[in-house]
Amino acid sequence: MFFNGFTYRGDYSLCKRSHMYKGIFYMSVSAILFAASAGVSKYINNMSDINPMQITFVRFAIGAVFAFYLMLRLKIPFRPVNLKFVFLRVIFNTVAVIFFFIGIQHTTLTEANMLNMTYPAFVFLLSPFINNEHIKKEYIFYLLFSMCAIVLILNPSLNGFNYGNVLSLISGIIAGAGVCVLRESRKYDSSIVILFYLMAAGGVLNFLMMIPYFKNVNHYIWLMAIISGSLGVAGQFAITFGAKYISAAAGSIVSTTRIFWAALMGIIFFTEILKWNTVVGGIMLFISVVGIGGGWHALIQNFRGKAA
What we know:
Low-confidence stretches: 1-12
Helix content: over 70%
Number of domains: 1
Strand content: under 5%
């Protein structure tokens, strides 16, 4: 047998390593694309009075067209096996995306992405109720650590919370529930079927929510919305494809780098100033999210294996 030009004689390590690098590449690209999509959305908000739901609608529309094309090309049946979980996934994801993009409008690009990236903590918290999974005791520390990070980033004061930060956090909570539902949905339907209905039905729901708040903007703003939507869709497909080649633990480390890319874009393009609580909270969040994903445990086991 042959694999990428190399003879494959029962040595699985070469194949496994190649898959890991491919997974890291796609997950890294998805993190950059998601951060860039949010960055373009922030730029649009600064340039016009467009409603963020118009930006998210463009994203859903582009995703639906692309997913529809893939399903036709791959001859995948359009009828989902379990409609209930697909429907729930559509609801949770659509609301989470809309809340996140509205949050971007009212807070910094850095903090919006940080608070949205709390979703793995809420997956961990909600999985016993949705997926009937048991919470591993060794991960409770990371959960508590992530809660401390959230409070630090929110930085509550006598004047209350920043509106955008609260919406970004809510988007993370809802996204966490959506991931739990996605786990159940994947037991019955393929990723591309779920993705198609996520984009198509999500676009319809987004459109109905958008109508009362629609703003008439110029062609340039619509072009920017298309760019933002395209980046987001590309990121969605990259993370879906990359997840096939990388473990959940390694994926948690790579995907969390979106926090870094968002912060870098915020500083360069929007002259955002990182406050001490944002920096410390971001580091704490990175540590906790990677820990919840099993990243630190996997690194320790790998180190011990090499030492032995």
